[in-house]
């Protein structure tokens, strides 16, 4: 039997959250299917190469696709992220290479895959809490600048106290948005502006590595570090599962 990722207690917690959506029924094969999805998350193998112990590969893929379409997997991450301590919020973006098999989806949009001299890529924008645990994320094409999704990251927070980010987020409009929501920004000024670093708490800024650590942890999963999914929705579901696995030890 391939190596599994969930204990009985963690599966019970997750399955309770899945049933709370009203879109998942109590079936004994769901745990086997879920473990198959996590196996593919960890290894990045094609769905067709899933070990037979998880059931037929097409059954596992169809169930994943259905849960992704119904936002069941995103719900797991969001439910666990409600436990976040958002006194400090660290934000950043990270690029992942999109495999050639991820291109060519039969849709009218770009599915968050951008083209540049470096090839196809997708960018993940992330906000983490005071302990470095993920709160909210978004996807875009890889060539997008971090500041383009920064306002959206803040708008999705329940409250804003202190937002810490690097120089890429040095924008008067963005800092004003944080201030209007009652928060404080810790963002260094770019050198070319020749303005004093009046809004930087350097002691707090040292902890900005927490958001980079979160990216490092999820990129241990090969289906995250390289994007194979054609649909942005399916890749976002895989990212949600990776972030969910960061939260599970805090809950079980």
From TrEMBL:
InterPro entries: IS402-like_dom, Transposase_11, Transposase_6_like. Pfam families: DDE_Tnp_1, DUF4096. Residues 6-77 form the Insertion element IS402-like domain. Residues 89-247 form the Transposase IS4-like domain. Keywords: Plasmid. PANTHER family: BLL5188 PROTEIN, TIS1421-TRANSPOSASE PROTEIN A. This is IS5/IS1182 family transposase. It comes from Shewanella morhuae. The lineage of its organism: Bacteria, Pseudomonadati, Pseudomonadota, Gammaproteobacteria, Alteromonadales.
